[in-house]
Amino acid sequence: MSYIRIEPHSQFKKAIHKVRKDGYITYNYWGMVEVCEKLYDISLEDAREWVDYNILGLNDDKEGLFKVRYTNRETLSKVRPKVGKVRRKVGR
């Protein structure tokens, strides 16, 4: 199985929740929404719609190309891992 990371990775790495040893990435939903808000300078509602259609739409098979963790938006800062730790795991 081939896994993907969402591009531009320099921005979406902020939304990574965890990375398995085999490279399978779990993203935080609200982290992706936050990245899209800033990256595309759009409203929260538009960012959610963009993520739901353009990113989550990629995950159409059984396990998916990546996993998404849904948490309350208010707890986003508590679930983000240290970027350096994630970067080492994905080899970048």
Structure description:
The protein has 92 residues and is an alpha+beta fold. The chain has one domain (9-75). It has five helices and three strands. It is globular, with a radius of gyration of 13 Å. 20% of the residues are buried.
Helix-strand layout with pairing:
Blueprint: H1 9-12, E1 16-19, E2 25-28, H2 29-40, H3 44-55, E3 67-69, H4 76-79, H5 83-90
Parallel strand pairs: 2-3
Antiparallel strand pairs: 1-2
Number of helices: 5
**What share of the residues lie within helices?**
40-55%
The unreliable regions are 78-88
The proportion of residues in beta strands is: 5-15%
* Structural class label: alpha+beta
Indicate the overall shape. Answer: globular
Distance from N terminus to C terminus (CA atoms, Å) equals: 20 Å
Taking the sheet with the most strands, its summary is: 3 strands, mixed
Q: Looking across the biggest beta sheet, what order are the strands in?
A: 1-2-3
Please summarize what this structure is.
The chain has 92 residues and is α+β, with helices and mostly antiparallel strands. It has five helices and three strands, in the order H-E-E-H-H-E-H-H.
Key words describing this protein structure:
three-stranded mixed sheet, alpha+beta
